[in-house]
Amino acid sequence: MATIRNPFYYGGVAEETYFCNRSNEIQILKKDIKNGLNILIYEPRRFGKTSLVIRALKEINNRYIFIDLMGITDEIEFINAYFNAISASLETTAEKTVRYFKNVLKIRPNINVTFDMNGSPSYSLSFARSEKENVLEEIMNIPYEYAKHRKEKPIVVFDEFQEISKLNLEEKLRSKIQLHGNKISYIFLGSKKSIMKKMFFDKNSAFYKSVKHLPIAEISFSEWSLFIKKGFKNNDKKIDDEFLEVILSISKGFPYYTQQIAYELFNSCDSNSAVDSIIMKQTLHSILDREEDLFLQEWESLSLNQRKALKLIIIAKGDNLYEKKTMDQFNLTNSTLKKAVEGLINKDVIDKGNKRYYLQDPMFEYYIYKRFI
After folding, report:
1. Can you give the pLDDT at residue 28?
2. Would you state the pLDDT for residue 118?
3. Do the Cβ atoms of 349 and 302 come closer than 8 Å?
């Protein structure tokens, strides 16, 4: 008997049938990329930024260079990570890649190629430290040179771009991007709103007024409901509206968490049967157990007043935080609460929208509510 493939997916880029909606953002992205604009997207982790961008790029069918900056600790690591991303995108085979770069690079670093168990190549450069600045400049120019000579516009995607601020590369990268004009579209993705806003909206920052900011709205509950119902129905399973409401009240429409809960519910539900309250309760309990180490680490990194402030925000639903009765419930004063809230905003734990405060991670909010309130 064939194994039924789960119609939901989380933990990576959601592609093909796993991708839900965002048709409006995709159309805007495609137009802006074709026109050579540089685009900024910042939203919390697990909001579906990367899946959205990859979906749009595949519909355009252009070459794109994707580099994740998380974990890169210095300029040399950046050079090699960027070079590897460029190499993987611009040519088809290792032999062609090496030949191409030997022809276009003015400098002469050694090009190293290694292969993993599947035969996929990985590229790096060997050069003297005294050559670092020249190598960096050349690597940053490769997409532009490629665009000039091949009459094809590659797109460069920097994921977790806030990390560039730790590498002292903002000025260098900005100067190159400015020279590249509309020959290349750069897409900057970030999950730390406080840092990304400072990098792109502060008048003293290198990237000030250099991009079009594209906000991403939550996928509507109606779209998610249709998507989840279809996934169950097409595989002879069923989920009623009351359980869809539970999923979306917890996930707040975040793609990662919505898909995670739906995935686990689907696995827990037998063929020709429906999700019930027992399955829902067990599934949510199991998810919280698996996420607990991560959430507990985040909880323990907060001060006592910040923890109190989070509880207050959850109970008050983000409204009227500074009412005396509400603050007294948690033994907070106006000044201590204000300081705690500012600290939580700076740590990107909470944000404010539509005149109310909210936790940026909805599953963390659910965890706090179930474990500590």
Report:
1. 95
2. 81
3. yes
Q: Give the residue from 129, 128, 199 showing the smallest Cα distance to 160.
A: 199
**What's this model's pTM, rounded to 2 decimal places?**
0.89
**Is residue 280 within 8 Å of residue 73, measured between CB atoms?**
no
Task: Determine the Cα–Cα distance for residues 267 and 177; give it in Å rounded to an integer.
Answer: 46
Q: Is the CB of residue 368 less than 8 Å from the CB of residue 294?
A: no
pLDDT for the residue numbered 157? 97
Q: Is-contact 184 152, C-beta < 8 A?
A: no
Q: Three-class SS of residue 273? A: coil
Residue 291: name the closest of 60, 14, 45, 19 by CA: 45
Mean pLDDT of the chain: 91
Joined tokens for residue 73:
């600790």
Instruction: Count helices and strands (H / E) in the chain.
Output: 15, 9
Name residues of the chain where pLDDT drops below 50. 1
143 within 8 A of 65, measured Cβ to Cβ: yes
Across 98-108, b (16+ Cβ under 10 Å) vs e yields: beebeeebeee
Alpha-helix runs per DSSP H in 303-357: 304-315, 324-329, 334-346
Question: Are the CB atoms for 248 and 227 separated by under 8 Å?
Answer: no
Note whether 254 and 47 are within 8 A (CB): yes
Q: Do residues 204 and 215 make contact, with C-beta atoms less than 8 angstroms apart? A: no
Helix (H) or strand (E) holding 158: strand 155-159
Q: Are 157 and 187 in contact (CB under 8 A)?
A: yes
